[in-house]
């Protein structure tokens, strides 16, 4: 079996999650100690700044790393935290002179930072929930632009709200209480929290939706909800980071939280590796040291007798170059993919099996029937599916065949509510699936695989199946047991700890089926599961599917162009042509049906005795004419 070997894979990591977290904290601690011991007060100042940046960048990565969306909007949370904590902790007398028109509900509190931080976190959560309800609807570039819009609006509001922020003037009088101990403690807590979130059920769902939203939705994951939760968690942490930042500076203005800071923090995250908490830490360390070094030269200096001129914006230029260099040389960041997930190693199963017993194969399911009634769907005038009715009950493998463009995949998309039908209905028992949300369909016992592989490429094979079992509502332990069962059933044990995108093609196809089966469906829809497989892989898959059908009693709706494969497995075959069902019956009946022969070989040749070939495997849709 040829797989991307772990020792050459960028995402390779043998250590356990705990060790990885400890490694990130240890690296930070070592750098902080080194700086303070070598450079004294200056080193300590840089170390405090570094730790506060770790909190901010790790917070940023909780959203960006888990959703794959770069945010420029986190400056808004930083500003909220800094101003709010500044107002709450400011000495009352100073506040009266600096902020004479402050609204009374904000004035005169003069609390300690330990009281202000929880308040700030709650305010951050509320602000995140408010903004997240809109931002979580978006993905990709649109979401990034929306976050930039948020930053611009927040900056404008901070300047306009002069009674609260002193407008664009310096906001002063904030107690400078962020010392090394507080900053280091906060950085460690942020790393732990981010790691915990990443490996939690919600973090896994979020990363699955990041890698393939449609596939995640087909498992029952509400992708928008996962983005919303990641945004709220990230925003809350960023607001606390903002408070620490404000208490480090003592005085600041809206410009302190604008593009300069946000850009630097995004660079830190990308340089280290957006998808990894350890990457965020390394990125902060590397970029903070780079920034501080370059700043020495920004105002002009003399190096080895050579006088360097003053270069305005040198730090920003160097940061820009750093990001370009890293993207070019290491697209995943300096330590990107540092955290692949639980035990990304060749012996994952060996370590899991003593602790987790594979779940027992379900021996039966409650009988049910997936029933399509007069389903139709058009795309800009093209009738992809027209008036289709058929049944796929449990305990039967129903083949669905038809020439290219017959409408088979569209039909599967209608049955799973990935597409909204123009007319007709799809019932699972009493439930009309055309009336439920896409992500709720698996809850009624319908799981699917896709025509083109849609695995969660950044997750391991183990995690791909685990996500499905968790999404079906199982607790972590049961989900792990089901995952082991399905990995065993599809001979994927050896590759459990490898990233899905590094697996050979046949294993990836089997993994998609294992993932769908981990939801214990009543009806399994398989869209061309054998496509691209070689003959021995196809035979092997057929054996496994027959076993699954027999032992579990589930129903399978099987689409494939390999007619030998479909004939071998199916008890009943439905034939589609030009969007409609032209025949259905036993494989023998269907093979002898003139309409089917005509659909496959075209009019004019049907007069000749024709038979769908069971032997033509290389061009399975062709028909051998005798
Ligand atoms: N999302 C879409 N937008 C526009 N047209 C579509 C879409 N999906 C399918 N179609 C069209 O609907 C028709 C049926 O396509 P479909 O993919 O369902 O057929 P199929 O039987 O699965 O074909 P194949 O075996 O080649 O996968 C085709 O004409 C196709 O171009």
Fold blueprint:
Blueprint (H helix, E strand, L loop, with lengths): L16 H51 L6 H16 L2 H7 L14 H23 L4 H21 L1 H4 L14 H20 L1 H11 L1 H6 L4 H27 L9 H14 L4 H22 L2 E3 L2 E3 L5 H16 L18 H5 L16 E11 L2 E12 L3 E5 L6 H8 L7 E6 L2 E2 L13 E3 L12 H11 L4 H14 L15 H13 L5 E5 L7 H18 L2 E5 L3 H7 L2 E6 L2 E6 L1 H6 L1 H8 L8 E2 L12 E2 L1
Parallel strand pairs: 5-10, 5-11, 8-9, 9-10
Antiparallel strand pairs: 1-2, 3-4, 3-6, 6-7, 11-12, 13-14
Structure description:
Keywords: ATP-binding, Cell membrane, Membrane, Nucleotide-binding, Transmembrane, Transmembrane helix, Transport. This is Amino acid/amide ABC transporter membrane protein 2, HAAT family /amino acid/amide ABC transporter ATP-binding protein 1, HAAT family. Pfam families: ABC_tran, BCA_ABC_TP_C, BPD_transp_2. Among the domains are: 242 residues, no CATH class; 192 residues, Rossmann fold, CATH 3.40.50. 52% of the residues lie in helices and 11% in strands. It contains 22 helices and 14 strands. Strands 8-9-10-5-11-12 form a 6-stranded mixed β-sheet, sandwiched between helices. The protein has a 4-stranded antiparallel β-sheet with strand order 4-3-6-7, with helices on one face. The chain has a two-stranded antiparallel sheet with strand order 1-2. Helix 2 runs parallel beside helix 5 and helix 11 crosses helix 12. The longest helix has 51 residues. It is elongated. The N terminus and C terminus are likely disordered. The structure holds adenosine-5'-triphosphate. Adenosine-5'-triphosphate binds next to strand 4 and helix 15.
